[in-house]
Amino acid sequence: MAARLGKGKAITATAHKLARLVYAMLTHGSGYVEQSQAYDEEKLQERTLKYLQHKAKTLGFDLVPIAV
């Protein structure tokens, strides 16, 4: 972000993001739950699969999982 916006604006944007997280936690009464890298990779795989299924459907194809 610093490369695109400059250091000052990047710091401000990061502070704003943290402030929104803290505000949401305080107003909703929920705690911060840090997600692991495995969780992020699983979500990425799910989004990619969903995108590919949608793209195949628009092109008239069906995706069929293969047994490995």
Task: Report on the architecture of this protein.
The protein is built from 3 helices and no strands. It is mainly α and 68 residues long. It folds into 2 domains: 1-33; 35-68. The chain starts with a helix and ends in a 10-residue tail after the last helix. The mean pLDDT is 89.
> What level of helicity do the residues show?
over 70%
Question: What kind of assembly state do the chains in view correspond to?
Answer: single chain
- Kindly provide the radius of gyration, computed on alpha-carbon positions and rounded to a whole number of angstroms: 19 Å
Apparent shape: elongated
Give the helices and strands, then pairings:
Layout: H1 2-5, H2 7-28, H3 37-58
Quick summary:
The protein has three helices and no strands.
Provide tags for this entry.
mainly alpha; 71% helix; elongated; 3 helices; 2 domains; 68 residues
